[in-house]
Amino acid sequence: xxxxxxxxxxxxxxxxxxxxxxxxxxxxxxxxxxxxxxxxxxxxxxxxxxxxxxxxxxxxxxxxxxxxxxxxxxxxxxxxxxxxxxxxxxxxxxxxxxxxxxxxxxxxxxxxxxxxxxxxxxxxxxxxxxxxxxxxxxxxxxxxxxxxx
Length: 149
Known about the structure:
The chain contains five helices and four strands. Strands 1-2-4-3 form a four-stranded antiparallel sheet, covered by helices on one side. The mean pLDDT is about 85. It is α+β, with helices and mostly antiparallel strands and about 150 residues long. It is about 45% helix and about 10% strand. The protein is elongated.
C-alpha cells in the first residue's frame, strides 16, 4: 500500500485500477510513461473517479520491485506538480456544443490544431475528465475523423 493511492474495487483478476487522493492520476500515468512503463489513464465515468488501470501477468513478476519504486517516484512527482485549482478558470462547453468547435477551442487552449497529440496528455485528460461523457464521446469521434481526413 502507498499512502495517497487507492485501489478501486476488489480486483479478482489481473486487471486493476487505482486512483490518487492527493494528486492527479493523469500526471502519475505521464510520469510512469517517462519511466518507460505503460499504464492506461482512464477518465472518470459515473461513480468511478479518474484512475490509472493496468493488467499484470506472470511475465511482470520479475519487475514488481522496480515498478513499485518507479510508481512511488511518479506519485511523488505528481504530488509535487499538483495544483487542485488548475482548472478552476477553464470554461467548459455545454454538453450539446458542436464537437468541431469544442475541439478547435480546446486545441487552441492546449496548443494543438486538433490533428496531433501533445507530448504529454495529462492536461488534455484533466479537461476531458470534466466534460459530460456524451460530449467526450463526440470529441473522440471528431478527433479521429481529423486524424484520417
